Each structure stands twice: as C-alpha cells, then as structure tokens.
Amino acid sequence: MAAVTPDDSVSGALTKLQSHLSGLAGKAAAYQQENQLSAAELQQLSESASSGELGADMQAAANLVASGQDTWQAMFAGDSSNAGLLVSNFDRSASENSAAVRAGLGT
Question: Where are the domains positioned within the chain?
Fold first, then answer.
C-alpha cells in the first residue's frame, strides 16, 4: 500500500474545494437569475417611481434609469453609486409592512 504524501492530501483537498466552489458558483448564478425582475415588473416599478408614488428618491432613481444613466439592476445589486436612492423606499416598505412580517414569522 502506497503512503499518502502531503502533496497528495493537498491535491485532494484542492480538488474538493474546486468542486465545492464550482457548485456554489452555479447556485449563485441560479439565485441571481431567479431574483431578477421581469420586464413587466421593471416597467411597473419605473411607472410608480416616475409618478412620485414611491417618494422623491425613487423618482430620482427612475429619472436616472429613463435617461440611461443607470439601471434598476445595478442599483438593486449595489453596483451603482446611486443605490442609496433605494434606501428610503426600503425603509418605508419595512415600516409599513413590519406587522405583517412579524405575523408571518409567528413573532
């Protein structure tokens, strides 16, 4: 029986790590794809935000999207310097829906 060398152990561990990383990358890509807004949802968001219904920050965000200076996807992903414009809408939504969330979680 051949002895297992440290190189063999490291090689085996590296192979396992690469396999796990590949699996995680696939899961991350699937998660991102599943959590993309549809064209209809993006249109509705743009309309609601442009009208001011979602507040001044969201209206500013919609103007940036409409002018081609930014995208909803980049802002929601945090890849845009304008992502902060979404915070007030998130805060308002969380405040308005906190009771329903707590009820849904059974707390």
Answer: 8-37, 39-105
